[in-house]
Amino acid sequence: MSQPFDVAVIGAGPGGYVAAIRCAQLGLKTVCIDDWKNPQGKPSLGGTCLNVGCIPSKALLESSENYERAAHKFSAHGIKIKGLSVDVPVMMSRKDKIVSNFTGGVAMLLKKNKVASVHGHGTLLKGGEDDSGNHGLWQIEVKNGDKTETVEAKHIIIATGSTPRTLTFAPVDNERILDNTGALAMTEAPQRLGVIGGGVIGLEMGSLWRRLGSEVTILEALPGFLMAADEQVAKEARKIFTKESGLVIKTGIKISGIKTGKKSITVEYVDAEGVQGSEQKLEVDKLIVAVGRVPNTAGLGAENIGLNLDKRGYIEVDTNCRTNLPNIYAVGDVVRGPMLAHKASEEGVAVAETIAGQAGHVNLDTVPWVIYTSPEIAWVGKTEQELKTAGVQYKAGQFPFMANGRARALGETGGFVKVLADSNTDRILGIHMIGPYVSEMIAEAVMAMEFTASSEDIARIVHAHPSLSEVLHEAALGVEKRTIHI
Questions:
Q1: Domains and CATH numbers, the chain
Q2: What's the pTM value of the predicted model, to 2 decimals?
Q3: Is 277 annotated in some ligand binding site?
Q4: Residue 325 labelled as part of a binding site
Q5: Residues in the active site (predicted)?
């Protein structure tokens, strides 16, 4: 491209396209480079999140929950359904349409904001220096099939996201052994489904296919279940997922081998909860590998320009997402911090504002986490185990959804909200939820922590009645042992 840009963004996921739009809004001439193609081989913006992650998974989770409600919960409302069935291909078609609308929407947003869009794989090249010895323009080689072009820009924002972590003994073919892409593309529910990994992706995919009829077994290598979450929340979640949802969850698993036969896949493993040292076998029709994600920095050309990566492949950045090189930034899954779309987007905005001379900022201590199971799980801030380990004195207040009128009306009464506050200052240190629609409720908790609220602040705010948010209100009251409705 003949004319240099103020900013070149590599990657059009939630971090990249948001950064590009904000740069353009601030008057910076911006280009966004991305190489994602949809199954039809056409450019498809939005990265993993819109194409094979957040958006399609939530679409299918909603479809499967609707089927679950119709099959098992509608009768309590006096709604009777005869001949209920599920058409998985129609679910997939609906999901694909939602994905297409959103990825097309990103393209329209870039065009609306006058962001140039270049399709292809971007590789960093060494830039030159101006007459004063200052760094001039960076160069990016963009390859799209046989076509190659060079993009020049003063600033670069790297937002190349992440890819699924692989296991050498379980090669993904997305026909029988699946990653998240394959798990979101099955046209029928397998009779027996195995999931390696009990984290966010494993639980969501396992829950989705369990509701549609699969017998699901989740194998987790860590000694405990959902160890990143609050221990009490994790315990409640495991109880609900196993006793009510029908998931089989095994922790402390060490897989010794996987054998692929003509009709089934056999996973050989040692179960820490079984007889010590005894090998067990799990025979399944499909196997999902969901053992986390790794930063997508391979092929970026970091070695060409001396860009620092750590031992795990993450790009090293400071608190403002600056790399070791002048005018080069990195955001999202390729840098430290949680691999979450909303975190990437906010970092993209912060970097754009920094480049424009403003004061961009992201508080990693108040990034919310959400798991879209049923019930949902959400949290922000410190867990009880983290506070205990750090020796922080705290108070806790808790309230169950069982005692909430709106939850009773919904017929979704499992779970609770817990508020953790400093014993001396009453400042909120963490809020943890498991229950209906807590993915929406967590926003109030994040806002409270961003404004350094105390539990008393939430306790004094009037919450609408009847609403699920009253559970957070009562949990805040519980910090000082003054809940009203239990």
A1: 5-163+294-365 (3.50.50.60), 166-291 (3.50.50.60), 375-478 (3.30.390.30)
A2: 0.95
A3: no
A4: no
A5: 465 (proton acceptor)
